[in-house]
Amino acid sequence: MPSALSLLNTVFGYNEFRGAQSEIIEHVVANGDALVLMPTGGGKSLCYQIPALMREGCAVVVSPLIALMHDQVAALTEAGVQAAVLNSSLDQETALATERAFAAGRLDVLYVAPERLVTPRFLELLSRSKVALFAIDEAHCVSQWGHDFRPEYIQLSVLHERFPGVPRIALTATADEVTRAEIVSRLQLDEARIFISSFDRPNIRYEIVEKQNARDQLVDFLSSRHPGEAGIVYCLSRRKVDETAWWLADLGIRALPYHAGLDQHTRALHQERFVNEDGVVIVATIAFGMGIDKPDVRFVAHLDLPKSIEAYYQETGRAGRDGLPADAWMTYGLGDVVQQRRMIAQSEADELFKRVLYSKLDALVGLAETAGCRRVRLLDYFGEASSPCGNCDVCANPPRVWDGTEAAQKALSCVYRTGQRFGAGHVIDVLRGHPTERVQRFKHDELTTWKIGADLSDKQWRAVFRQLIALGYLEADSEAYGALKLTESARGLLKNHVRVSFREEVAAPRRRDRRRSAAAPGLAQHANEGPLLEALRNWRLALAREHGVPAYVIFHDATLQSIAAAQPQTLEDLRGISGVGARKLERYGEALLAITGRG
Ligand code: ADP
Ligand code: ZN
Question: Are both 386 and 407 inside the same structural domain?
Fold first, then answer.
């Protein structure tokens, strides 16, 4: 039997295991059950793909995501592994042929949709075949409380009952303890060893900026930091998705919309272009992303606030699976908090559940308003301790922290004096002494709080109000269009029992300049990347079209970049490059040398 490491080298072309991969593989190969918690991009697939090649028989992988199954099979096939898929997208003839190949022992890995796996017919087929292991991908789909619940996943406990001797490995990127416990009990994994990796994604740079003109901010972000690169822009509403996509396209950016209101054909087409072509920007509602395995997504931008830290982390986690630097960038303002709160208030959920939703939102607002490292805060939310990362906007450019007690008191009194019926905009007008029509209509220029805040700018007051909401001193009434109201804890602050500090962003140096100076060799910068890399990309694109697979299935960006940097002259040189396995060397080695020889 070949060793795990030699399979990693020859089949997948990688030099060493990452994190706990090797331990997990060893455990599963030795017949053990495993529950693997690893962040997106951590390398979960190899944890069952390598045991599949080491154990006798075929590995059966359950996955809820049709597109993802196809991409995985394409990638395995490129690497020379006998892999196939069974799901509802196949015609009957192909499905039958695949079943025959499986029963005859001609497959190493078979991906199966859960609803098919649990049919009596398929269980019977399993009992006639040699199964190397069961892998249950996206295992959090068994959780009824989770956002991806799949009823068929609950029936997967049948695998243990019917095939007690076959090891099972369940995998997920959902970290919280409740979900973990639910997976263990529903899938009967009580005996399984649990492997928990750090959830940090060190190559993702987190940045949350104050919303001013979101579109201009987005364009500035795209053009200065990601020209020509692939990424996802998330918006809350379908309309905003359409408008943003049109508007970016007008500026010459290859942007495509994606949301549930588009017909299925258009959606599939846009997703396919995003996955298969270089440098497409998808503008989407949250309906987009699950099951898209594209490794070279260079940024995820949020124009609207997600619902929770979990959602934010899952969405931003789609950036940089390949381990190369990537950005998670979000614009955020007071209006976002008001909007999200209104959506919760108007939802059908019962009071208890609404309270959970509010507290999840509050945690995210706390992240947006933190004066400390974003990553520390994120990981802390998932129960992981860490120290300041040096790769987020706060670490790079620490905000000024000032004693805001007096400003907070002025703000709270003004909310109170104006009757707790107005949003932040009007209250700020009163504080700063702007004699607007509304101020005059309500005679707010006669209040004791009129003009007591002229020492701070509009922008500074907006930051104060955002933070007062984030800290729980004010709440935005969701029924009354964001009218601000004092909370219980506001009293302590007004009576001088507590003090508060606020953060104030210090004007950041332009990222563009810093990136140029700090840019490591090999960073994808399409605008001025070398002609060699461009030639390699073009070759890859042509080949991907010919094979009908996504470009990254042929070679990842990281691999092309290493090739461009190393300029190998012999097959032996090429073999040493991460991502070039034996099969790919055999198939593509000469073609690559023809290109690098030229370069
Ligand atoms: P996950 O399923 O955990 O999101 P994947 O299994 O898709 O992650 O792996 C993420 C990426 O990392 C893939 O492109 C994979 O080829 C790559 N990868 C996994 N393990 C290694 C390794 N040991 N060395 C180099 N690259 C790896
Ligand atoms: Zn940091």
Answer: no
Q: How far is CA 244 from the centre of its chain?
A: 20
Q: What is the CA radius of gyration of the chain?
A: 27
**To which residue do tokens 């492997």 refer?**
195
- Asked whether residue 99 is assigned to any structural domain, the reply reads yes
Pairing mode of beta strands 474-477, 483-486: antiparallel
If you measure from the C-alpha of residue 321 to the centroid of ligand 1, how many angstroms do you get, rounded to a whole number?
8
Cβ–ligand 1 contact at 17 (below 6 Å): yes
Tens digits of residue pLDDT in 114-142: 999 999 999 999 999 999 999 999 999 99
Domain of 344, in residue numbers: 204-396
Domain limit, last residue, from 396, 420, 450:
396
Pick from 18, 25, 174 the residue to mutate for probing ligand 1's pocket: most ligand atoms within 8 Å of its CB. 18
550 and 473 housed in the same domain: no
Atom of ligand 1 nearest to the CA of 18: 23
Higher pLDDT, 1 or 469: 469
pLDDT over threshold 50, residue 512: no
pLDDT tens-digit profile of 231-259? 999 999 999 999 999 999 999 999 999 99
Residues 164 and 287 in one domain: no
pLDDT averaged over the chain?
89
3 state DSSP class of 501: strand
150-180 pLDDT per residue, tens = 889 999 999 999 999 999 999 998 767 788 8
Residue 329 β-bridge partners = 207, 301
46, 73 contact by CB (below 8 A)? no
Q: Are residues 48 and 190 in the same domain?
A: yes
The model's pTM is: 0.79
**Model confidence at 530, in pLDDT bands (50, 70, 90)?**
confident
Mutational pocket test of ligand 1: of 293, 321, 560, 580, the residue with most ligand atoms within 8 Å of the beta carbon: 321
How many Å separate Cα 88 from the centre of its chain?
27
Q: Are residues 367 and 246 in the same domain?
A: yes
Q: What is the CATH number of the domain that holds 222?
A: 3.40.50.300
pLDDT above 70 coverage of the chain, percent: 94
Most distant pair of Cα atoms in the chain: their distance: 88
Ligand 1 site, residue 321, Cβ cutoff 6 A: yes
Helix (H, G, I), strand (E, B) or coil at 587: helix
Q: What DSSP line would sit under 236-252, residue for residue?
A: SSHHHHHHHHHHHHHTT
Query: What confidence tens digit (pLDDT) does each residue in 338-348 have?
Result: 888 888 888 88
DSSP state of 203: T
Q: Ligand 1, atom 15: nearest CA belongs to which residue?
A: 43
Higher-confidence position of 367 and 176: 367
CA distance 325 to 329: 13
The residues near 259 (Cβ < 8 Å, ≥ 6 apart) are 238, 241, 242, 284, 285, 287, 288
Residues 6+ apart with CB under 8 A from 598: 535
Q: Is 76 helix (H, G, I), strand (E, B) or coil?
A: helix
* Higher-confidence position of 11 and 400: 11
Same domain, 391 and 423: no
